[in-house]
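In this section we turn from sequence analysis to structure. A common task in structural bioinformatics is to predict how a protein folds when a small molecule is present, because the ligand can shape the pocket around it. The inputs are simple: the amino acid sequence and a SMILES string for the ligand, here zinc ion. Study the lines below before reading on.
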Amino acid sequence: MNNRLFFFPGHGRYVLFTAAALEHMYRHAQRRIWHKEAGGEIYAIDPDANGLIVTSALGPNRGDRRTRCSFNPDIEAAKRDRERQFAVGLHAVGLWHTHPEPHPSPSGQDRQTTEEYLSAFQGDRERYLMVIVGNFGNPPNMKVCAISQNTRTKWVELVEESTSSVPTHDHGNNTWS
Ligand SMILES: [Zn+2]
């Protein structure tokens, strides 16, 4: 299991997803017709860093309303998740959820939800991420977008760095060194 690295346009900023965070999201990929959408929040130690390191993902929760094509989180459970993570020094930096499509892209509802989350920070966050895990590929295709809110709302799509050119951040199973 590898980390994955996504760059903002211009390569000034990046988001690194650790294997642990990815593993959690992959488990919910909608690989079968009866699998429902799942999701939750993703967390990092330093939400304002230029290089964001997403170390964990939580959700779904029992009280979420889920169908094959929709996901509505249980707000109270999400809040409890968030408080527990905060207690161990982790900050919510975005949302993740699954889509029953091979090349996932955000719906209008997804964008609206993410914008609502960002505005709930009342200026405490410059940007918020949206991660969508598709149902095809090994590892599954992932779409990562960021919304920022300075003078106006702006969406950007991040670009994944191909694994061959990424220095490994693994400290365990380096088979080629
Ligand atoms: Zn969606």
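Residues 43 and 92 are 4 Å apart (CA to CA). As an exercise, try to locate the residues that line the zinc ion site and compare them with your own expectations.
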